[in-house]
Input
Amino acid sequence: MPLTRDQAQQRADDIQAFRREVLRLRGEDAQLLGDEPLARIAAHHDHLLAQYRASFDIDHDQQTRRLSLSMRIVSLLGALALAASLLFFFYQFWGLFGTALQVAILAGFSIASLLLTFFLQRRDSSGYFAKLAAVLALACFVLNIHMLGQIFNITPSDNALLAWAAYALLLAYACNARLLLAAGLACLLAYSGTRISHWCGWPWPEVTERPEHFLPGGLLAFLLPALLSQARYSGFAATYRIIGMLALLLPLLILANWGNGSYLPFAADSIEKLYQLLGFAASALFIWLGIRRDWAEVTLLGQAAFLLFLFIKMVDWWWELLPKYLFFLILGLTAILCLLVLGRLRRAHKGGAA
Amino acid sequence: MNARLLSAGLGLVLLSNAVALAGVWYNRQGEPEARLLLSERELLRSWDGPHKENSGLTLRLNWRWPPTEQDDRCSSTELSAAQLEGLGFASGDTEPRWNSRPAWLVLELDGPAYQRSLRLAERQLAEAGERLRQLPGDRQLQQQEQAARRALEHEREQSSRLLLVDVGADAEALRQRYPDRRQHALLPGKVQVWRCRDGADARLGSIVVLHNEQLNVPITWRRQLAEWLPQPYGSDPVPFTAEVLVGRRFEPWLGDVRLAEKPAAADDDDNAAR
Output
């Protein structure tokens, strides 16, 4: 029995592909198995598919797959709309209540939305409604803490980020929701940045003054799936890696163009050059790692970052110097060179696989 | 598994609310750190933002820098080298990489800084009058004298009497220097500096930011205050007094509000509390 919905879906897709291939082989008169073994295999597959549909609510054909995608998009939009509605609903009426009632309503909404999420999770095998409720629960909790601060004039504190991160991660793991995982990781990265910023003597809201504040958190987020297995949660490891890579590559990109934003005690020009080199090296490392480990998202993001670094460097060198047609010609030639290198890598990979 | 996660979620919601409320309780225990009696000059209605459907009301502490003799391009106040050093900015460094520091701000209500500011406005009016007496027909001097007169009137009647008088890194040391808790409030904020060219010289310009200058108005006074203060930047303020207390955690709150008689001109239909 597979562990996750994605694994069950993959197996169901393989079964459908197998059935199509058997039909083709029968048409080409190249069928090796007799009808009886095929019937036994078909019965086993039917049993498996029925099990998967019952346990994981998988898409058993292309039609249901397309509908699932639509449901996912509608569920996301619905969750965002409901969260906005909640915010405006509270603003519309909160002035009419006394302080105690305001606090009770805020905490009550948080608790009720959490209970609703867990109730729906038990009832709704597709998970769409539970995930929608989970996003709403996070919105309630964010509103809860934010409005407590406003009602009692509490000095803004980055500790709120830690509470939001913990809550978002808890909901993400309860509902297997990647969007909430990304939200939780973003809050956690922001919190690690504000703490480092505070320890270095800055006021915590000035966290973005030094993009280096985000590098340790980004590295940790990228490495975490290797340290703690995420096999039971589909797409979670990839989400960790994507968020970690963004937290590593974006600061490098900013520092490669804004040396004054660094802690390093060198001239801004030298710092920019150093971070440009680091940016190229990190992107290349991610591409290599992605190909080696078969992490598609790491390879893609690494390639995008590499090209972005390259493009910015080319603009730096040649935009003012060269006529525009020549500049774009060099860009086009560079793209062809990249294609050749990637093609070579692809052939080498195919050769290895063979 | 799910039951454990549900309990953890409930625990997190309750704990977060409890921690926030315990902080509020602690802040408001015992004798307040400061107690200021402010008026409509020091408390303005906050901008409601794009969401006009907001039924709440918040007031903004209207504090200002002490005015200086000349217009200073670099700073509206004079943070001394010692003050900047006290906050951790390197002395003589006109290109600091570290351009923002947490700071404690001392706000003074109707004290010597405000009196200086009044005297400055009076002196400026006297000087403008003296210049006009020498050339009574000069139209520009007439306008300058009228502007100085209006400035003095504004300073006397409308300008905020809450002025920033000091900044520092040590709240306790500042409180010892400014012991009058009914005149001086300590609040957390930050100081930002930047390189400022003033002629041939380069020096540090500064900005001071208060972290928490919004005050939520409880329901007891909300409706009436919303009628009193229909606009965020009303040009015709209606008199009221409000006691603002600052607690142990240096977080302010409204202790009491006393409203004068409502003026007949106030437009109830348009501006009443929603």
Q: What stands out?
A: The longest strand of chain B covers residues 184-198. The helical segments of chain B are 2-27, 81-86, 112-134, 139-157, 171-177, 219-228, 268-271. Chain B has a mean pLDDT of 85.
